[in-house]
Amino acid sequence: MKEEKIKGSFKGLVPFFIFIGIYLGSGLILQSQGVELAFYQLPAPIAAFAGIVTAFILFKGTINEKFSTFVKGCGHQDIIIMCIIYLLAGAFAGVSKAMGGVDSTVNLGLTYIPAQYIAAGLFIIAGFISTATGTSVGAIVAIAPIAVGLAEKGGLSLPLVLSAVMGGAMFGDNLSIISDTTIAATRTQGVEMKDKFRVNILITAPAAILTIILLVVFGRPEILPEVQNYDFNLIKILPYVFVLAFSLIGMNVFVVLTGGIALSGIIGAVYGDFTLLTFSKEVYNGFVGMNEIFLLSFLTGGLAAMVTKAGGIQWLLEKIQKSIKGPKTAQLGIGALVGLTDMAVANNTVAIIINGSIAKKLCRKYDVDPRKSAAILDIFSCIAQGFIPYGAQMLILVGFAGGKVTPLEVMPLLWYQQLLIASVIISIHIPFADGLMRKKPWVWEAEVEGI
Question: Can you give the residue ranges of every domain in the chain?
Answer without folding.
Answer: 75-448
